[in-house]
Amino acid sequence: MILPIVAYGDPILKKEAVEIDKDYPDLKELIDDMFETMYEASGVGLAAPQIGKSIRLFIVDGSPFAEDDDEEEDPKAEGMEDFKKVFINPIIEEEEGEEWGFNEGCLSIPKIREEVFRKERVIISYYDENWELKEETYEGYAARIIQHEYDHVDGILFTDHLSPLKKRLLTKRLQNISKGEIEVPYKMKFPLKKKGRT
Ligand code: NI
Fold first, then answer.
1. What are the residue ranges in the chain where pLDDT is below 50?
2. Active-site amino acid positions
3. Helix boundaries (H) for 53-163
4. How much of the chain exceeds pLDDT 70, in percent?
């Protein structure tokens, strides 16, 4: 089932989400729905708060970042072809390396992309969809997607990483997103949309 994606301005996107346990109701179905929703919206990551659930869960599929054979080699794209994962109760244990800039976007903030600086490498522990505890190290685009999605379960958006000036320049566009005054090719829920208006 495709779920509506919560738009910028909804308080759930600013809330620190809570951990879940194995008894969380219909978890498998929720994960399936999140993948379906993410693919429909052509995203590479989706966190539970974005579909209205304030729990520490996110999914990723970085395969759109995988390289074609004829492309110039990009070390940041290594391993992206099968970077499809479920992260439950994740903890970023460490972030290391040089910060690098990347133009990030977010399904909750359609049509806005801005350069965000983050460290190269993350060590993350989490439970996978079978409740197996993992600890892994990621770099490049995989690390970037994890850092962005992990922020979501902490109530942080990529716009929170921008300078006050850059953020101020985006104010109007962000307000329009909250009000639903934007064309989006996937289903969304807008916090400030007036009833009866389409
Ligand atoms: Ni996002």
1. none
2. 149
3. 140-153
4. 97
- Per the CB < 8 A criterion, the answer to whether 176 and 182 are in contact is yes
Nearest to 96 by CA among 76, 116, 122: 122
Domains (range + CATH), the chain: 5-189 (3.90.45.10)
46 C-alpha to ligand 1 centroid (Å): 7
pLDDT score at 91 = 98
Q: Give yes or no for a contact between 60 and 83, defined as CB atoms under 8 angstroms apart.
A: yes
Answer for the pair 17, 48: CB distance below 8 angstroms, yes or no. Answer: yes
CA of 189 to the centre of ligand 1 (A): 15
Write down the pLDDT at residue 73: 83
| Integer Cα distance of 59 and 70 in angstroms | 29
**Cα–chain-centroid distance for residue 109?**
11
Dist CA 87 CA 104 (whole Å): 20
Q: 35 CA to middle of ligand 1, Å?
A: 14
- How close is the Cα of 187 to the center of ligand 1, in Å? 15
pTM: 0.96
Residue with the two structure tokens 């307000």: 175
Order of strands across the sheet that contains 114-127: 45-47, 57-61, 84-104, 114-127, 133-139
Q: Give me the pLDDT at residue 198, please.
A: 54
The rounded distance, in Å, linking the Cα atoms of 134 and 106 is 26
CB count in 10 Å sphere of residue 133: 10
